[in-house]
Write a structure and sequence with these properties.
The complex is a heterodimer of chains A (162) and B (493). Chain A has 162 residues and is mainly alpha-helical. Helix content of chain A is 36%, strand content 9%. Chain B has 14 helices and 16 strands. The chains are: A mainly alpha (162), B alpha/beta (493).
């Protein structure tokens, strides 16, 4: 009987410690998402079929997406992700695109009509301009994601190799 | 007498110094043209301060300073700017870039220089400004801006170390400087001691440079140069490396990723000290330096006091031209230098030696063979690294493991290359790995920046959405209230 009571007391004690620790040291968010996101190139291009690098990282973490869906990260990126997650590295999904050299967008300022559509499309706010005024790309902020190309009504944006 | 310490590793190399020290040092003739590459330390393009057709005089600034890390560059003689031309830059990757080309007129007209022999009354900070304005950088080969190195805040300095060890084979420019200008070097030492506020200076001289030691001791006995100790150091390569020399002379070790100032030492090349002395006492900026022209490929090897910006071809011509066996041009010494593709490249502030290698002198037709894991490279390494491990990981492009093996500590001295029985060009692998690591770091910085901007944009969009919803709600409420009031007020009239 005494043994039973003592055991119960010990279990209750440890239970309290565990309960306290789970509240005191609670981890906000999923740390694996942060780690995956840190390995992604942050181009924010959406080629992985997710609206940015972070959503893709979340999809990988929850097992909804594969690790070979990031063309800008290239084979090296897949390898790094495989290393982090303990998976087998595989070639990039050819349907989503291929690894390309780094590029930046350049606006032909003579043709620009100031429609602001590209500004709204840019995921990192790298395009500067105002309605009916010429726009320009801040080259140091541009990630080369190509997202500003489709909305342009006059096709005045070009991708140039770095 | 000082006791000396040892550093791990290092090798004895055939010195090949006699070739260029037999003939006395000469002053090179004025060149026909001067070439100034517009390159800065961080690899970015410098902005010229002169334009095509402009007449420049000796000592006039042609490339302005850009912060403390990029001191100005001065014209070495008078002439007319021919233009800014696309030419090869004198650097290991043979990049092509903009260079100022000046047609020399031969008058050697100069701007007015103002110096003062009585520098003791000038504040150290003001002297640092003068050193920066005189364009002085480390003349030992790395060309680190001197004014930055002389400002060791927040570390306390107790020892000034002047490096005249010159341990790399073939190079004798510091030897020549010490023999011909011992007073300038000692004067520079005194000036540096004043700037740093230290009262101990160790002047390291290679023990095989007897003439230089005699000249220094003679100059010291004739003048007031207290607390400067001339110390012969063994001619083991790379004793002249900054960290190695500090270990040999003081027994202190510079921490990894650290700088000598952390252990209370500032190390300067002897030629830098002489240049500082000249700049402060006469006001003349750094426009010339001693360069060793040597090797079996040149007729009369010797040291030349040459204007910075002089094309290599003109210096070789001054030394009697090429011999039949000339095979390769190397800027710097055989261990740390790099090959030049042509001889119309200029010497820079960092150029201590032009080695015109004769047939079979430095290049061997030995093929690299597989590593046999003998460990000879680890024994020779002066910074106690494991070159064979670094080599494996560098070959496999495994940058993480390379960093685990302390790649940044490699001083690229080339000892491992020399001792490798399989003739593997180890240092080339390490240099390439270093630049890959730097590129990766740049990329990850950029990715971090893009991530922040993306997150900021997401947050802003979220906020705008909320604000829109809020204002729509407010409008709706307002509309509702006004219609209510109207409904209430309608039946009255």
């Amino acid at each position: 009987m005494l043994a039973f009571v003592v055991l119960c007391a010990v279990f209750a004690f440890f239970g309290l410690i565990l309960g306290y620790a789970s509240i005191r040291f609670k981890v906000e968010g999923n740390p694996i998402v942060e780690k995956i996101n840190a390995l992604l190139p942050q181009t924010q291009c959406g080629q992985c079929l997710y609206p940015g690098c972070r959503p893709y990282a979340e999809a990988i973490a929850s097992g909804k997406a594969d690790i070979n869906q990031c063309p800008p990260g290239g084979e090296a990126g897949v390898k790094a992700l495989a290393g982090l997650l303990g998976l087998e590295a595989k070639p990039l999904d050819p349907e989503l695109g291929s690894e390309k050299p780094k590029r930046v967008a350049v606006i032909d300022e003579k043709k620009c009509i100031g429609c602001t559509l590209c500004i709204q499309a840019c995921p990192v706010d790298a395009i500067l301009g105002a309605p009916k005024l010429m726009h320009t790309v801040i080259a140091s902020e541009c990630t080369g994601c190509d997202l500003c190309l489709p909305p342009c009504p006059v096709d005045c944006i070009m991708m140039e190799a770095l | 007498m000082f006791g000396l310490w040892n550093f791990d590793g290092g090798i004895h190399l055939p010195a090949h110094k006699a070739e260029s020290t037999l003939a006395p040092m000469q002053v090179a003739e004025l060149p026909k043209e001067l070439i100034y590459p517009l390159m800065m330390r961080n690899g970015e393009k410098a902005k010229p301060l002169v334009s095509t057709g402009e007449q420049v005089r000796r000592g006039q600034i042609v490339v302005g300073a850009d912060g403390w890390m990029n001191p100005p560059l001065h014209a070495a003689t008078s002439g007319k700017v021919r233009g800014i031309e696309q030419r090869l830059w004198p650097q290991p990757s043979s990049l092509v870039g903009d260079c100022i080309v000046i047609d020399v007129d031969g008058d050697d007209e100069s701007v007015e220089f103002q110096g003062t022999a009585n520098y003791a009354s000038i504040q150290p900070g003001e002297l640092l400004d003068k050193i920066h304005a005189a364009g002085i950088v480390g003349l030992g080969g790395a060309a680190f801006p001197t004014a930055v190195k002389l400002n060791p805040q927040p570390y306390a300095i107790d020892t000034l170390l002047l490096n005249g060890a010159e341990c790399e084979p073939y190079i004798t420019c510091d030897d020549s400087l010490l023999r011909h200008f011992p007073r300038e070097v000692l004067g520079g030492a005194k000036l540096l001691m004043h700037i740093l506020g230290v009262n101990r200076c160790l002047l390291a001289v290679g023990e095989d440079m007897q003439d230089a030691i005699i000249a220094l001791e003679k100059a010291q006995s004739e003048g007031e140069y207290g607390n400067i100790h001339i110390i012969p150091v063994p001619a083991i390569y790379p004793t002249g490396g900054e960290k190695q020399l500090i270990k040999v002379l003081t027994g202190r070790e510079v921490p990894a990723h650290g700088i000598p100032a952390q252990i209370g030492v500032i190390c300067q090349n002897v030629a830098t000290a002489a240049a500082i002395h000249k700049a402060i006492t006469t006001g003349e900026p750094l426009i010339s330096r001693i360069v060793t022209i040597t090797g079996r490929g040149v007729l009369h090897p010797q040291n030349l006091l040459a204007r910075i910006g002089t094309p290599v071809a003109e210096l070789v011509e001054h030394c009697g031209g090429y011999t039949d066996s000339a095979e390769r041009l190397i800027m710097g010494g055989p261990m740390m230098g790099f090959a030049l593709p042509t001889d119309d490249l200029p010497i820079t502030k960092a150029t201590n030696c032009i080695l015109v290698a004769g047939q079979g002198e430095v290049i061997h037709d030995k093929q690299a063979m597989p590593c046999i894991r003998c460990g000879a490279c680890a024994t020779a390494c002066p910074v106690s690294l494991l070159p064979q491990q670094l080599y494996w990981h560098a070959r496999a492009d495994n940058l993480e493991r390379v960093m685990d093996c302390h790649l940044p500590d490699c001083i690229e001295c080339g000892c491992c290359d020399i001792v490798c029985p399989s003739h593997i060009p180890l240092v080339q692998y390490f240099r390439s790995a270093k630049s890959k690591v730097a590129a990766k770091e740049r990329e990850s910085l950029k990715a971090d920046h893009a991530r922040l901007r993306y997150e900021a944009r997401q947050a802003r969009k979220e906020r705008e959405k909320l604000e829109k919803a809020e204002s729509a709600k407010r409008k709706k409420a307002l509309l509702y209230n006004t219609t209510k009031i109207q409904q209430k007020s309608e039946p009255v009239p």
